[in-house]
Structure formats: structure tokens, C-alpha cells
Design brief:
Layout (H helix, E strand, L loop, with lengths): L2 H10 L23 H6 L2 E6 L8 E6 L3 E4 L13 E13 L2 E12 L5 H11 L3 E9 L3 E9 L5 E13 L1 E10 L4 H20 L2 E2 L6 E2 L4 E8 L2 E8 L3 E4 L9 E8 L5 E11 L6 H22 L6 E10 L9 E11 L2 E15 L2 E9 L7 H27 L6
Parallel strand pairs: 8-11
Antiparallel strand pairs: 1-2, 2-10, 3-4, 4-5, 5-9, 6-7, 7-8, 8-9, 12-13, 14-15, 15-16, 16-20, 17-18, 18-19, 19-20
Helix pairs in contact: 1-4
């Protein structure tokens, strides 16, 4: 969605949940690096942001009269028993045309790899924003979101633009905000001004360590699955317990289990990568029927195993074509369900599964987490390891299938 279309929807109140961040979506922050002369003409000054951490420190252009505050980043190790550390490390405030703008900077340091898109979405939703546009070229490394808070009268009151990016074992979240005037024309200009300042800020960022945005490889692990069509390398967060059959897929079904355990040893997230032999017509309707049968089978399997308690009900949320496969003419769907316990109906957990058919094989990536409270920081970040694992496993499978010859079995 073009940015101005998103602004129109924001101002007219025609708000809807963002479609998932993907390469097909349009980037919100589009600007070119500026020369010193161009920056001066635009009313900018060069500002160094020092957090006493070379991987996080950067400099960029900001409005001439902006106020800047920074806090030193805590470099000491994460204490035992904690899942990570979330810290506000900076703030930029300025006014333009009698409208107040602000950028709040957070650092997220976790035991698992950063999750830029999920964390950006969590922060914005938790802060009361409704997301109207998102862009994430890589859901783990980088994400941009545009959202709005509504007033009591149902009209947009505050616009927010989030930019989250990975710096090794840290995730940095920059949250740009502007209070909107009641006049719609002025409010639209305020949203555009917010986007322009944020875009110039991001386009001119230069990191002290000269390294690009990216993950820390030390937080990732991998497992090779030897298929007859080639070797599939599955990536996942380090620290998950892996169990299942041998690496070589000699007979089907093939299953590989991943379990996230808390520091007290309690299992918390369950993931499964599986390959099944299938037959029958390779048509869309037939695939949907097959996929839905497997979804029900996996739900029942987890209930029998005790991973999902008996006495629960499953409430369908949504199913979509899995991103990235349509252009290769590969049938793929993702499903999400709520798992609701009768004795605790207000805190459902989520069941997610992605199914992909390639010729005579059905590939499945299944995910169920015991997380019930994703609103709190503790609840969200405890469950983020499973979220990241699910994304990484799906990305690994998609990359493998898209590079395999179309006729490969």
C-alpha cells in the first residue's frame, strides 16, 4: 500500500489490521542519504547518539532545534533467571508547525535472536496503536510499521511510526510519534512530516562499528535434513532441544521435534518439522481438504501427547496462503487456532501450522506455545523464542523449496 493511501485510510478512519510484513509491501521509510549542504537547507543538524556501546552507537541528521537525551547501555551479562533486558536508551523531541514530535529509542537484549517484526508489532499494539501498514524485508532483522491511536470520538489522535532493527544480539526499536490536530488537513500534513523526518533519520544513520544490520550467528543453530531432492538446512534459535529420526530421510513420515524449555526445565514451546508421503490430484481444492485434515490430525496428536491439555476447545482464527510460494506455483497454507481451556477461557494459547505440498510430499511446520499472556513484557519475550523458531523453520523450508527444480520430487 502506498504511504499516502495509508495516510488517507488513517485520516478517514477506515482502519484495518496490517497485512503481514513482506517484500511485496511498500517500505514506509524511503529517503536518500543527504549531503551536509542538503541537510543544512532542510533545517537539520548532525547528531551523535552515544550509548557507550559501539554496536548501538550511531550518528544521523535530526531537526536543528531537537532535544536529545541518551542513556548508557548496560553491557554486563543477562543475570541468571532472566530472559533478557529491555531498556529505554534515547529520546528525541522537537516541534514543527505547533505539533510535538518524539522518537523514543529502546534496546532489547534477549537470549534468543531478535524478532524485529514481532517485537515492533507487540510494542505498538501494547501501546494502543492500530496498525495500518507494515513492511518487513526480513522479519527477524528489520521492520517498519505505521499505526494510529484513536480518541474517544473514534478519530485518529496520535500517529506512530516504528522502526526496529537487529544489531547482533540486540534489537533496537525506534518509535516516532506525533499528536494529531483535529483538522484533517493539518493532521495529514503532520503524518507526512512524521514520515519524512523518520525517513531522513534512518537513511542517514551511520553506525560506529561500521557493521550492517544483522543477527548474531552465535544465537543460531542448524540441522541438516537429507532429502532425496537435496540437503535442507533448518535454522533455529540456539538452546532448543532437538529430537527425532536421523538426518537422512529414508522413510516417510519423517519428524523432527524442537522443544523450548524454561530455565526451571519446564517445556514451554513445541515445534515439529515433518515430511509426509501423499498422493492424489495436485489441485487447490484437493490441497485445502488435505491440509485441513492434517491440521485436525496435529491438534489431536498434541492433545493425546498431553502438550495440549484435554478438555480444551479449538477456535479457528484464520488461514492464508503461505507467503512466498504462489509465484512458484507451489500450494502452501498457514493456519492459526486458539486453544481454549474450559477452566481458564480468558487466556487462550495459540496453535499454528504451515503446510506445503511439493509433488508427492507434504511438508509441515507446526508450533504450539504455552504462552498465554503476550501483553506483558515477560509473557511476550518468554514466548518470542518459539515465535522466532517458527519463522526460521518456515523460512528455511521456503528457501529450499524455491531453489529446488520444479519437477524435483
Amino acid at each position: 500500500m502506498p504511504f499516502r493511501s495509508a495516510v488517507f485510510l488513517l485520516m478517514s478512519g477506515l482502519l484495518f489490521a496490517a497485512f503481514g510484513g513482506g517484500a511485496a509491501a511498500q517500505a514506509l521509510l524511503q529517503a536518500q542519504p543527504m549531503s551536509k549542504a542538503d541537510a543544512a537547507r532542510a533545517g537539520y543538524k548532525r547528531q551523535i547518539f552515544s550509548f557507550k556501546a559501539p554496536s548501538l552507537d550511531f550518528e544521523t541528521y535530526i531537526p536543528q532545534k531537537a532535544d536529545v537525551k541518551t542513556l548508557p547501555y548496560k553491557t554486563e551479562p543477562i543475570p541468571a533467571g532472566q530472559i533478557g533486558r529491555v531498556l529505554p536508551i534515547g529520546q528525541v523531541s522537537f516541534s514543527k508547525d505547533n505539533i510535538a514530535y518524539e522518537d523514543i529509542i529502546f534496546s532489547y537484549r534477549l537470549r534468543s535472536p531478535p524478532a524485529a517484526y514481532h517485537t515492533c508489532m507487540w510494542y505498538m499494539a501494547n501501546d494502543g496503536y492500530r496498525i495500518i501498514h507494515s513492511y518487513a524485508p526480513d522479519t527477524l532483522k528489520e521492520a517498519q510499521l505505521l499505526g494510529v491511536k484513536l480518541g474517544d470520538n473514534g478519530k485518529p489522535e496520535t500517529a506512530g511510526l516504528a522502526y526496529c532493527y537487529a544489531r547482533g544480539d540486540n534489537l533496537v526499536g525506534q518509535y516516532f510519534m506525533a499528536k494529531l490536530p483535529e483538522n484533517e488537513g493539518e493532521a495529514e500534513r503532520a503524518v507526512v512530516a512524521l514520515r519524512d523526518v523518520a525517513a531522513d533519520f534512518v537513511a542517514n544513520m551511520q553506525f560506529a562499528d561500521k557493521k550492517p544490520i544483522g543477527l548474531d550467528p552465535a544465537q543460531l543453530d542448524s540441522r541438516i535434513v537429507e532429502l532425496d531432492s537435496g540437503n535442507l538446512e533448518l535454522s533455529f534459535p540456539k538452546g532448543l532441544e532437538v529430537s527425532g529420526t536421523d538426518n537422512k530421510v529414508s522413510t516417510l513420515p519423517y519428524e523432527l521435534y524442537f522443544t523450548q524449555k524454561l530455565q526451571n526445565g519446564r517445556p514451554f514451546s513445541y515445534l515439529l518439522f515433518a515430511v509426509h508421503a501423499i498422493s492424489g490430484p495436485d489441485r487447490e481444492e484437493a490441497f485445502r481438504n488435505l491440509a485441513e485434515a492434517y491440521v485436525n490430525a496435529y491438534l489431536n496428536m498434541q492433545i493425546k501427547a498431553g502438550d495440549i491439555p484435554a478438555g480444551t476447545t479449538q477456535e479457528y482464527i484464520e488461514s492464508n496462503s503461505a507467503a512466498g510460494y504462489a509465484q512458484a506455483n507451489i500450494a502452501a497454507r498457514s493456519y492459526r487456532y486458539k486453544i481454549i481451556a474450559k477452566d481458564n477461557p480468558d487466556t487462550p494459547t495459540l496453535f499454528q501450522i504451515t503446510l506445503v505440498r511439493r509433488n508427492n510430499k507434504l511438508f509441515a511446520v507446526y508450533y504450539h506455545s504455552l504462552r498465554t499472556d503476550s501483553a506483558s513484557a515477560g509473557g511476550y519475550f518468554t514466548g518470542s523464542t518459539g515465535d522466532v523458531a517458527y519463522d526460521l523453520l518456515r523460512d528455511s523450508l521456503r528457501a529450499f523449496l524455491l531453489k529446488s527444480p520444479a519437477g524435483q520430487k
